Amino acid sequence: MKLGIAADHGGFHAKEKLKEFIHTLEGISLVDYGAKEYDALDDYPDFAERIARAVASGEVERGIAICGSGVGASIAANKIDGVRAALICDTYSARQGVEHDDMNIICFGARVFGEELIKEMTKAFLNAKFSGEERHVRRLNKVLALENNNE
Ligand code: RB5
Predict the structure, then answer these.
(1) What does residue 41 show for φ and ψ, rounded to 5 degrees?
(2) What is the DSSP pairing of strand 105-109 with strand 85-87?
(3) Average pLDDT over all residues of the chain
(4) Is the CB of residue 68 below 6 angstroms from any atom belonging to ligand 1?
């Protein structure tokens, strides 16, 4: 799978740690959409936009966005059509968010979660597939209709 990752200064160190872990996983090709270096003055929407556009265009299949709380990254990423981003705090939702909701960007709060939990949630996210079950497709289509009805 082609996977993207991005973080502002609040998530920068967690991103670098998580990249080391992702490089140990088989079958994942990782693209880093920044920040490329720590800058205490950078802004989360800039990095959320980069990863969101990469996912929406199909440049990468899925993304990971990290900021201090995970809130700003998820709010900003969801502004881009085609993105289904969520702030995830547990492995159940990391898996089910993909299986039921076709979540394509997982957001983490680096100031909230420990490194091991972030790794576990990442594994659950990457190993999950959208179920394709009729009820989930029906619900996903309703979500897509909401996106297309934006005035
Ligand atoms: C940056 O200080 C912080 O506000 C940002 O990383 C994020 O937590 C926003 O939601």
Answers:
(1) -105, 5
(2) parallel
(3) 97
(4) yes
Whole-number Cα distances in Å, 107 to 76, 94, 113, 149, 150: 11, 10, 11, 25, 24
CATH of the domain at 112: 3.40.1400.10
Q: Cα 44 to chain center, whole Å?
A: 13
Nearest in space to 127 (alpha carbons), one of 16, 26, 5, 18 = 26
CA distances (Å), 70 to each of 85, 93, 116, 125, 137, in order?
Answer: 10, 15, 16, 16, 27
For residue 146, report the phi and psi dihedrals to the nearest 5 degrees: -60, -45
Q: What's the number of domains the chain is made of?
A: 1
User: What are 43-63's pLDDT values in tens digits?
Assistant: 999 999 999 999 999 999 999
Q: 33 lies in which domain range?
A: 2-149
The model's pTM: 0.97
**Ligand 1 center from residue 86 Cα (angstroms):** 15
| Residue nearest to ligand 1 atom 4, measured at CA | 68
Q: Which residues are catalytic?
A: 67, 100
